[in-house]
Design goal:
Blueprint (H helix, E strand, L loop, with lengths): L3 E8 L5 H8 L11 E9 L7 H6 L3 E4 L7 H13 L3 E5 L3 H12 L5 E5 L13 H15 L3 E4 L2 H9 L7 E3 L13 H7 L7 E6 L8 H14 L3 E6 L5 H10 L6 E5 L4 H4 L5 E4 L8 H8 L4 E4 L4 H4 L7 E3 L4 H13 L1 H18 L2 H15 L2
Parallel strand pairs: 1-2, 1-4, 2-3, 4-5, 5-6, 6-7, 8-9, 8-11, 9-10, 11-12, 12-13
Helix pairs in contact: 3-4, 4-5, 8-13, 11-14, 13-14
Amino acid sequence: MNKVKILSLVWGFSIGGISKYACNLHEINKLDEFNLEIETACIYSSNWESDLKKLFEINAQLILIDSRTDFSWIRQVNELINTMRPDLILVHGFNGPVIAHICNIFSRRKSKFACSYHGLYSAPKLSRRLLVPIVNILQVFIYKKYAKSITTVCMHTRDYLIAKGIDTRKVSVIHNGLPLEAPRKDRVLLREEIGLNRDDFVIGSASRLDTMKGINFLIDAMARVVDKMPHAKLVIIGEGNCKSKLERQCLDLGIGHAVNFTGYKANVPQWLNAFDLFAFPTLAEAHSIGLLEAMRAGLPIVATNVGGNPESIEDGISGLLVPPKDAVSLANAIVSCIKDQRISETLGRGARRRFEAEFTLEKNIQRTANWLFSCVD
């Protein structure tokens, strides 16, 4: 029996969640029970920051363009579709449905496509802010009228799409998943690398540094934490357009000595081993992979009660949830974990159990394979 062919089509290939999702899809090829074969094609420009190593690992086909204004990708994608003749095209993120629909228009063909939805479009630069409402409205329009099916990463985003008028029967929820274990590195060596002592209580955070991630509220909270617990230190992993502003905020609060900005780290799961607690102060979120990584590491977690976070964290069992934009509540939750080791240990064990029960890569792949197979029926 011939395998069902699925073309996974990606625009760019950064270090974010969509690219990880596209890589994970290839695990489905190992599941003989579903008789599915997934091939990935990536629309790519040498001017973009892309993880080519990962693309080569999954044998992705590169569709090369000069820039965002080079529309030769339409012809190239349609040629690939005509050659491959996939039973289903799977597109990702806010631009995925637009890509699929444009290709159908120019080919005068109605290729069946499904979509993975990862949240609203957020402009990475000020110059693109005017595009935000246009992109988000267009995405929903194409979902409604042309997409075969949409999978979202959490109930929060599913509810959003349904509230926008998309047929409930079109929208499925498949939570993100990670491999059961992550590579580890010696805790002492990691701490020494950034000048931390063994007896420091290290609060870690890893995210893109922009306003929606709420790191400024974490820094405000940290000033309160250090006042009560002088041995507390904050390590912030990530880059972004708010970094210099956040660094000035630390200096203004007099806690520059207690906060370390490491910049981008490719091995975040290893760095989690250097932390005693994971803080996630985001103001909006779908289903955070960073949060799942902290749960897998068995860390006590303090996170904001927004978006899909409460679908990952059970308040008081696998972490502590606090209101967004509330530095006082954030600080109090962190201090409670520092003061009482039993609370930290209980929350850490609860986080690991929750991860094992719901958010492993194995469970994600099985659920995704079932969904994809239903899309081609």
